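Convert to structure. Protein one:
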Amino acid sequence: MSTNESLNESLNASDPIFARRGEGTVSSRTSLEEDSMLPATAYQIVHDETMLDGNARLNLATFVGTWMDDHAIRLYNDSFQKNMIDKDEYPQTAAIEQTCWKMLGDLWHAPDLSTTIGCSTIGSSEACMLGGLALKRRWQEARRKDGKPTDRPNLVMSSAVQVCWEKFCNYWDVEPRLVPITEEHKTLDGHDLDKYVDENTIGVVSIMGVTYTGMYEPVRQVAEALDRIQEQTGLDIAIHVDGASGGMVAPFLQPDLEWDFRIERVHSISTSGHKYGLVYPGLGWVVWRDKQYLPESLIFYVSYLGGDMPTFALNFSRPGAQVLLQYYLFLRLGRKGYFEVQKASQDVALFLSKGIAELGPFELWNDGSDIPVFAWRLKDGYTDKWTLYNLQDRLRTRGWLVPAYPLPDDLADVTVQRIVVRNGLSMDLAALLLNDIKTQAQYLDGLEGPVPQEAQQSAFHH
């Protein structure tokens, strides 16, 4: 930089910030500017633009963590430059990753940690992809061994499955067989499962915390249905448990519920560290009950402390900081601390669901007694003036993001609204939210005529 340029930069720095180049003009949205700007000016522009986003703490649509304590933030700042895939450069971070998935294996009752295997991922979607790939590869290898074709694999799951499973089937040429949820069967509970599985079924997905409603699918019942199918047909079909949310709730709030590796048919479990694992995004985990269920053909080996470390994530370079944050929380909270955090969230969910059920317009779909998530709908025939989409929009004016959306397939004519209670939604804030729901419902009830109905825009993206 020349002397004159340096002088001009110094003079610009003393200008009022909103009069500086960059703040005083509209920047291009399609190409880089020729000149640089002061870091304080660039920061202010980005900071101000993101003020248009919603308040993350008031976003009750997302399962993803929006609060961590000051020590976690310090640790994040200390380690965000670490690349998880670079195990030679950051061997202790690699060792901590292994410590974390072994802790999860123990939490999920893996029968023998010396033969268990797992890894971290960017999120539970990648973890689900790896679980699905292992199911497909094992099915292919068994079919080839028996001299049978491998060109028509299918995966059986609920119609309320998270979209990552539909992506898996699309990306890896697997036929998705969706068992519809109904008023009678609100989750995949093993009912009529024999109509969906056959010799080409690579596995069944059970969800611990359905995204639409928060309900647990009864993994034990699904396993028992598959046991009966095996007795009748000889088909031995594995289960992958999508524990994106419930995998970090059930061990603490429902410790006697059998959904994990206590069920022999459960070969793998995935979860989100950045949901009820309480870490900032993005972090997921997947664990197999035994190495035999993760085909060797999916594993690559990298040099690590003079030896080989297995790696099988889909992503390559990715953050290591979130793994360290997970370890921090495992140390900081322990089982007692995780129980206290999840119980506090469940208490808030039950407080809110009880309060909403007592309001005239609504009836609950579930109450948040599984994971701290619940949904409700308008009572049949309650009003023709407004819908839950209108309530969603009214709550947004108060800063709350509470999504309304239709249920899948056979229940597509049922619209529900859902609240996800996370660490950071206090009982005090919940009381304010409940009052706002009551006030906005009363406002809508008081309208003289129906709200003009445009094309409804759901805020729900699972």
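Protein two, convert as well:
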Amino acid sequence: MTENQLLKTAQEFGSPIYVYDAEKIESQYKRLTNAFKSVKKLKINYAVKALSNISVLKLFNSLGSGIDTVSIQEVQLGLAAGFKPNQIIFTPNGVSLSEIEEAANLGVEINIDNLSILEQFGTKHPKVPVCIRINPHVMAGGNANISVGHIDSKFGISIHQIPHILRIVENTKMTINGIHMHTGSDILDIEVFLYASEILFDTAKQFKNLEFIDFGSGFKVPYKLGDIETNIEELGKKLSSRFNEFCKEYGKDLTLAFEPGKFLVSESGYFLTKVNAVKQTTSTVFAQVDSGFNHLIRPMFYGSHHDIINISNPKGRERFYTVVGYICETDTFGNNRRINEINEGDVLCFKNAGAYCFSMASNYNSRFRPAEVLWYKGEAHLIRKRETFDDILNNQIEVDFSTKKEAALAK
């Protein structure tokens, strides 16, 4: 997208606002499918948790994608967006048996990562095939909060507990139709990913009725100029070759599945904010914007980097600014960033705002959550209205304290 298009969006719809580029989403999807084009059966399940707007889901549906969901609400969103149950995989963690049963009743693929739940579900529903999430005990990911395949992770069933899984399968006569892993996000070293994949292949040999192997995702995208990213093309070449080889060993063409989220939508997203004030202290020049970690928590939560540019003054001389929000806590988006000179009223653009930004937004400080816009075929489409004060009060129930006080005084 061009800076003029972004500025036009802010002027038309106000700020703060999230803007997504459908063309970038499509190109990332095609890049991934092309990297694995030598695999006979490939299934991409977009991770809904990254960005769950129903219009974005419909876009993925039009591309031929399936979806990966982690809550019953995401399953229902997927169905509302037009996905068929067999295009949806449900991969929750720590949810109740009843929620898994609700998803199963809707006909979606079930992915279980807990021995207790596996046994309970298999005992009650032995005819419903399920996928098993394996913890390969491989550390991967750019932050402790998103590294989920290590030995102390709450996710997955340990590879050392495979005998327990086999015992449950034998006792319940249930069918395991898929094996799954997810090591973490922001994977840099594809050799680590390939190593974990070998563990998954070894595990798959223990199950004779598989239909697919799901390798998760976690592919890293660049967050700034010259940043390292996962080499999808190299991974595609190496993993495809090994997967096709394994299918021959297994005696059946299985489906190779992925569940990317960030890789597909991160670079498509832009978060636009207006500068409320420029404040100079004894050592710092602050650019104070009309947003905070209620709208973009990743820099504070993960220490993530988002490039920040001044789209109102793209040719101005560069100066150093610390960009901060309006939340009544420290909410620093970027320290001492070199940005084209900022004046009050300018619009700043945060890049890589497509994944885990709006989806993690809140009403902290009783602030409204922003609007969302999707640029599709050269036109800006409003896909979520900006919240209003009525939205803040919605579902709140007021107690009439004055009536109770008057009644007490009457006595």
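Residues 140-150 have pLDDT under 50 and may be disordered. The longest helix spans residues 232-250.
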